[in-house]
Amino acid sequence: ALELIDFKNALEQFQNLVEKMIIQKTKESSGLYAKDDDAIDYDKFHTTTRTLFGPAVKDQNIQAFFRKVFSNPDEKPEWPEIFGCFLGERDGMPSPSKESMVFHESQKQQITHSVVKRKDVIKGIVKVPLLHFTVTASQRGVLTVFSKQRKSFLSYSFYFHQDTAWITGCDFLPNLKYVVAVTESTVILWDYKSKEIQNNGFVIKPMRNCLLCVSTVTTSGHLAKDTILMGDDKGYVYLLTMTNDDFIMKQSKAEKESQFRFMDSESFDMPKRKLHDDWVVKIKYISALKRFASCSTDSISSFVLDDINRLEDNLPVKEFSVPKGVNAFTYCGKAKVIVTGG
């Protein structure tokens, strides 16, 4: 807390310094400025900035910031630029540093491999930090795992062919090591590790309502099972628990010319509860709070945040309403706040 207060004070003093520089340069341009002991030159700016932020700033960034202010005082630079963080590359500007004491920037790498065809779009993207890969799902049925190995990206794609149903979301099952995706009427489970072209996926069907979102419940409990949260277009939230045994005991024979083995949804104990009166747009298990959250375009039950056990009973849930509902939300652990977008 003290470090945060000190940084805010230092930042305020730095912004006051920049304001004085802009006023000075504006007066110089109009011929109204008389140089005195309070004049700010580069040496004074460098010394003051170094005193305020210490080794968190580099000489090249201080120089670039100073030059930018004096070359165009009408466009005030953003303060993150003093730490080497730029909103966009410009001619003559140094490249952003990979790491600084204030900001930690991940090194970006472009993936040139095309995972979707024309008229297809990515509907879900999930980062799996522990395994160093990213999962994507396209609307027309392409599931892809991008694995960062030896500083290069390897991709494994899986095409789910369907006549009418579109994929609406995806996630990763950390214990069972499966990719899960939902369509309008099915739940897809893909064994991305399988080397077989056929029979490397499972489909749970039929689902009575249209599934719109999916999320994995991440806990440090049982290593042989995973729990999945799903939301549909009728306001219901589902709870589906999968184990390794389910892939053996509940599978049906794959249909002809199909790469999937089917599971009957009726064979699963799948608790569900109506929490909203409209589409469940997004659902997420927030492990830091040990709560699940769901949002909807419903103006009354717009956002729900409660224990996962509420899906198996009829006790009241913690919720709040927003006019025209909530379309998105996220949780920040450092600030301990939830931000919603309507």
TrEMBL record:
Keywords: Repeat. InterPro entries: WD-EF-hand_domain, WD40/YVTN_repeat-like_dom_sf, WD40_repeat_dom_sf. It comes from the Eukaryota. This is WDR64 protein.
